[in-house]
Design a protein that fits this description.
Layout: E1 2-4, E2 12-16, H1 22-40, H2 44-49, H3 53-57, H4 60-73, E3 79-88, E4 95-104, E5 112-118, E6 123-132, E7 139-148, E8 151-161, H5 169-181, H6 185-199, E9 205-206, H7 208-217, E10 229-232, E11 235-246, E12 251-258, H8 265-282, E13 292-298, E14 304-310
Parallel strand pairs: 12-13
Antiparallel strand pairs: 1-4, 2-3, 3-6, 4-5, 5-9, 6-7, 7-8, 10-11, 11-12, 13-14
Helix pairs in contact: 5-6, 6-7
């Protein structure tokens, strides 16, 4: 049994590209193309002028994304991948899930996607992703647009790689299975996280592929991630997070731990190094999966001090 989820439910509707009126589709894609060109040129000021009021008032995150990715995007040609229109009939301060495309009796199919969003005002929104070929790994840019009159204003901007070291999310998913078969469950867990991240071009979406990875690896999720306490360098550190992250075309492991005061850079550095050495000693399998480790000593305020060490230098 199959059903199409572009039908209004609970005051919300998702339209796929085939369901969208041609004039609306053209207006949205033209707006996204203009915004991409602004971002690729580093023109944050004009992009801000074209944003909805709440985004324009707090533009720091988007401006940082523009600056950090402008050198990679400048001179590239973006190609639309997909477009969805989300309609909200009443203001909502709660979590909303938009079921887009064709679903089966067991849930998602190859032609479906779920968007999970919060606190949306009544109105029409567009989410569109464009693939961007670069000289390195493939990238994708995604825009959230909100309709104001006849204009589609910027409501969100995301840039992320869809490959790492020339490999896509499916490749990292297969590597996760290989680590699982070897009994390296920590590596398997981290690699499936990276696979899901590469497959989902925005953080609030899920697809059949991401759902399948999640279900496949839930049974092997290590219970000691992150380890609550780690003895290192004669001290005990409280670890708060561990996750994979791409850095300079490599996959590294990030570990965050609480620290009373990072203003003493020398002491913070020593503690970071001690944590990295102790972590590899505790989980030697990490050497097979990561190019390095990034330790981040983090104060309660959120201020942190980070140190990167290549795996070959951790002894």
């Amino acid at each position: 049994m199959m059903f199409c989820a572009s039908i209004a439910a609970w005051g919300q509707t998702c339209l796929t590209s085939d369901d969208i009126d041609e004039a609306v589709r053209t207006a949205v894609l033209n707006s996204a193309q203009r915004y991409f060109e602004m971002a690729a040129a580093g023109d944050a000021a004009t992009l801000r002028q074209n944003a909805i009021a709440t985004v324009a008032a707090d533009f720091g995150g988007i401006e940082a994304a523009i600056k950090s990715n402008q050198s990679m995007l400048n001179g590239t040609q973006a190609k639309p991948r997909w477009l969805y229109i989300l309609k909200v009939d009443a203001n909502s301060s709660d979590h909303i899930e938009f079921l887009c495309g064709v679903f089966g009796a067991s849930g998602q199919t190859a032609n479906s996607v779920v968007f999970s969003l919060n606190s949306l005002a009544t109105g029409s929104y567009a989410i569109t992703t464009m693939d961007v070929p670069t000289s390195g790994d493939a990238m994708a840019t995604s825009f959230i647009l909100q309709q104001e009159g006849t204009a589609w204003k910027l409501g969100g901007y995301y840039v992320k790689p869809t490959q790492l070291n020339g490999h896509d999310g499916q490749w990292y998913g297969q590597k996760a299975r290989e680590f699982k078969a070897k009994g390296q469950l920590h590596n398997a867990w981290f690699y499936q996280l990276e696979a899901r991240d590469l497959l989902a071009v925005v953080p609030f979406m899920s697809t059949l592929a991401t759902d399948q990875l999640y279900d496949e690896f839930q049974s092997v999720r290590p219970a000691d991630l992150p380890p609550t306490d780690l003895a290192a360098g004669g001290k005990t550190f409280h670890l708060t997070a561990m996750f994979p992250a791409a850095y300079q075309n490599d996959l590294d492991l990030v570990v965050k731990f609480t620290h009373p005061d990072v203003s003493n850079a020398s002491l913070a550095y020593q503690d970071n190094v001690a944590v990295m050495k102790a972590l590899v000693a505790k989980y030697p399998e990490l050497r097979d999966a990561f190019g390095g480790i990034v330790a981040r000593a983090t104060e309660p305020s959120g201020k942190d001090y980070g140190t990167l060490m290549l795996m070959k230098d951790i002894r």
